[in-house]
Amino acid sequence: MPTLHIRTTPPGPRARTLLRRCERYVAPSATQAYPLVVDHAAGCHVWDVDGNCYLDFTAGIAVSATGHGHKQVVGAITAQVDRLIHFSFADFYYPSYVRMAERLAELAPGREPKQVFLCNSGAEAIEAAIKVVRHATRRPYILAFYNAFHGRTLGALSLTASKPVQRRGFAPLLPGVFHAPYPDPHRSRGDDPAEECLDHIENVLFRTVLPPEETAAIFVEPIQGEGGLIVPPDHFLTGLRRLCDRHGILLVDDEIQAGMGRTGKFFAIEHAGVAPDVICLAKAVGGGLPLGAVIARKRVVSWERGSHTSTFGGNPVACEAGLATIEVIEKEGLMRNAAEQGAYIQKRLRQLQQRCRSIGDVRGRGLMIGVEFVRNRRTKEPAERQRDHAVQEAFRRGLLLLACGRNVIRISPPLSITREEVGQGLGVLEEVLS
Ligand SMILES: Cc1ncc(COP(=O)(O)O)c(C=O)c1O
Q1: 426 and 415 within one domain
Q2: What is the 8-class DSSP label of residue 9?
Q3: What residue numbers bound the domain in which 399 lies?
Q4: Are residues 200 and 241 in the same domain?
Q5: By the 8 A CB rule, do 237 and 414 touch?
Q6: What's the confidence (pLDDT) of residue 228?
Q7: CA dist., res. 154 & res. 157, Å (int)
Q8: In terms of CB atoms within 10 Å, which of 132, 153, 247, 433 comes out highest?
């Protein structure tokens, strides 16, 4: 295992040069929290352009499930590059698209046959899902949740409700989108936050502004990621399923961040035993290459020829990378590893919580873990600055973390992380927080 070393306090000279050029030529809309300029990566370690070595607790925003540069994934990519880089499934056929569709349809929960549409990103998968549910139901309205993140293209952004900066200056968005509260067990004042949220939909929204018989779909993240790593009680998802069935509404499960084994099951919604009507995947599904997927019950896909497609969606190289990723996840027991390492990380963080008063909550499933920072445990007042400081300090010591929500640190390493690497990362985090 490589040792973490920070030879030159980042940003080092090479990084600084690139950052200057970046400021001059690159549109300033991204959200980089610290000046990491990546040169290369292997497994769970990342090297910057100045030779510093870091441990990756981000997996490039929950993408590199098998670890960076996994041999089998790289092999599948290079073999496909040699054979065929592009031909566009919009107008032609090639085997890897069909094999990927087959594989995802087999993996999706529920007995009904499924059909799959492949695209290039998470936001594109959400856009396609919006078009699937509207076309299938011929209903105009859509319901999503506060704190949700579904992407930044205009349709997806209309569902996203996690930070004002993501919407500021971009209105008007898609009409007919409503939001409901998402159950947050840590912050709820009541006994059953799931029931309260379901009750709000049924007895407030459906009785006032949102006719259920005109609602096409409810879009939900099985665990909210970017919005603050919020894990709802399982009966929230089972309750949503029942509510959808009652009103003929389709349930769309956004597994873009939580899927592909990250929570210990292939799809996070499987923990609740729920079969959605539509699933959106992206991030890890392309093994590091741009790929998104919509997996829908066959009877829901009423699209006709020419109604939706894309030049690059389901590119053959991305499909091969994705197929190899799925094979590695299964063959190397990465879902079991995610569950085991995740439980261990949470246990260690809870021990740390006893010593560190600013940790208000530790939560998550598998390797999708959140650490919430508060100024006062009783009032739960968010401690954004402490959270930001912890992320910066960890970076300076060689640990890559991401923030989410207002005051939460997100831990989402590759699913292949070893106990030794976990120990290395937690050692840094403990140093920073104590
Ligand atoms: C749950 C969820 N949905 C959708 C998206 C959007 O994906 P992309 O950034 O590939 O457009 C993200 C990205 O973070 C996500 O976490």
Answers
A1: yes
A2: P
A3: 13-66+333-433
A4: yes
A5: no
A6: 97
A7: 5
A8: 132
pLDDT tens digits for range 223-264:
999 999 999 999 999 999 999 999 999 999 999 999 999 999
pLDDT at position 112 is 96
| 424 conformational bin, left if phi > 0, alpha if psi -120 to 50, beta if neither | alpha
CB-based pocket (< 6 A), ligand 1: 61, 121-123, 126, 149-151, 221, 225-226, 254, 256-257, 282
Q: What burial letters (b/e) apply to 210-240, b meaning 16+ CB within 10 Å?
A: bebeebbbbbbbbbbbbbbbbbbbeebbbbb
Q: Which two tokens stand for residue 141?
A: 């309205």
Residue 282 shares a structural domain with residue 392: no
The helix/strand/coil state of 143 is strand
What distance in Å separates the CA atoms of residue 309 and residue 300, rounded to the nearest whole number? 17
- The residue ranges of the chain whose pLDDT is under 50 are none
Q: Whole-angstrom Cα distance, residue 44 to residue 50?
A: 18
How many independent structural domains does the chain possess? 2
Q: How far is the CA of 72 from the centre of ligand 1 (A)?
A: 25
